[in-house]
Write a structure and sequence with these properties.
Layout (H helix, E strand, L loop, with lengths): L23 H10 L5 E7 L5 H12 L3 E5 L7 H7 L13 H13 L4 E7 L4 E9 L5 E5 L19 E5 L3 H14 L4 H20 L7 E3 L2
Parallel strand pairs: 1-5, 1-6, 2-5, 6-7
Antiparallel strand pairs: 3-4
Helix pairs in contact: 5-6
Bound molecules: adenosine-5'-triphosphate (ATP) and magnesium ion.
C-alpha cells in the first residue's frame, strides 16, 4: 500500500503496485469477456472476501477495455439509514437502493452513451453520485458487491443482468482478520471493529453464502 500522509484517508483497496496479481486463468476469462460487445462480469462474495481488490486488479490488467462499477455505490446515505432506523445494520440487503442498482445494470447493457455510476467513499461512509464514467466503447464492466447473487426482492433481478459471475472466497478466519484490520484502518476501535465483523458483517456473510451455488465459478484469489 502506498504511504499515506498525516491525516490522509487510507485507500479502500491496496495501491495498484501492491495488489495481488490475478490468476492467469481468471484474467483469460475476463479478457475473453472483453473481446466483443458490452459484457458485464459480476464478482460476489462475503464482506472482506477480497471482491474489490480482485476486481480492481482485473480492471487494471485490462486497461481501457474495462471499468469497475461497485454495488457499494448504491448504499443508502447515512441520513436516510438513520431516518429508517437501519444505521445499526448498514451493509444489510435493505440498506442499499437495490432497484437503482438494477436500473443502472440495465442501462449499462443497453444505453448508447456514457453511463455515470456512483462510488462509495469508505472514509466518509457515504455514496458519491456521478463518480464513475462508463463510456460506450468500453467492452467489459466489472461489477462487484455482496448481493449480486442474492435472490430476495429487487436483488433477484441482478444475476440475469450479468454475463458471468465469480464467487470470491477465502478461508473464513483470514477473511475475518482482514475485515477487522480494514475497519480499524478506517477509524473503528479494535473492539468495535471485531464486534461489527462478528455481528452485522457475519449475518450478511451468511446471506451472501446462500448465493454461492448460482455463481459460474468460485475463485480463491
Ligand atoms: N489477496 C489478498 N491478500 C492480502 N490482502 C488482501 C487480499 N485481498 C484483499 N485483501 C485485503 O483484505 C481486505 C478486504 O478486501 P476487500 O476490501 O477487497 O474485500 P471486499 O470483498 O471488497 O469486502 P466488502 O464486502 O466489505 O467490500 C482489504 O483490507 C484488502 O486490502
Ligand atoms: Mg469491497
Amino acid at each position: 500500500m502506498s504511504a499515506a500522509g498525516p491525516g490522509a484517508a487510507p485507500a479502500a483497496t491496496p495501491a495498484a503496485e501492491a495488489r495481488p496479481v490475478p490468476d492467469a486463468a481468471l484474467l483469460a476469462r475476463a479478457r475473453a469477456l472483453a473481446a466483443g460487445p458490452r459484457r458485464l462480469l459480476g464478482l460476489a462474495g462475503a464482506p472482506g472476501a477480497g471482491k474489490s481488490t480482485l476486481a480492481a486488479a482485473v480492471v487494471d490488467a485490462l486497461g481501457e477495455r474495462a471499468v469497475l462499477v461497485p454495488m457499494d455505490g448504491f448504499h443508502l446515505a447515512q441520513a436516510a439509514l438513520e431516518r429508517l432506523g437501519r444505521a445499526d445494520r448498514k451493509g444489510a440487503p435493505d440498506t442499499f437502493d437495490a432497484a437503482g442498482f438494477v436500473a443502472l445494470l440495465r442501462r449499462l447493457r443497453t444505453e448508447a452513451g456514457t453511463v455515470w455510476a456512483p462510488a462509495f467513499d469508505r472514509a466518509l461512509e457515504e455514496p458519491v453520485a456521478g463518480a464513475i464514467a462508463v463510456p460506450p466503447g468500453v467492452p467489459l464492466v466489472v461489477v462487484e458487491g455482496n448481493y449480486l447473487l442474492h435472490d430476495d426482492g429487487d436483488w433477484g433481478a441482478v444475476a440475469d443482468l450479468l454475463d458471468e459471475t465469480w464467487f470470491v472466497e477465502v478461508d473464513d478466519a483470514v477473511r475475518v482478520e482482514r475485515l477487522v484490520a480494514r475497519h480499524v484502518a478506517f477509524g473503528k476501535a479494535p473492539d468495535a471493529a471485531r464486534a461489527w465483523v462478528l455481528g452485522p458483517d457475519e449475518r450478511n456473510a451468511r446471506l451472501v453464502a446462500a448465493g454461492r451455488a448460482r455463481a459460474d465459478v468460485v475463485v480463491h484469489p
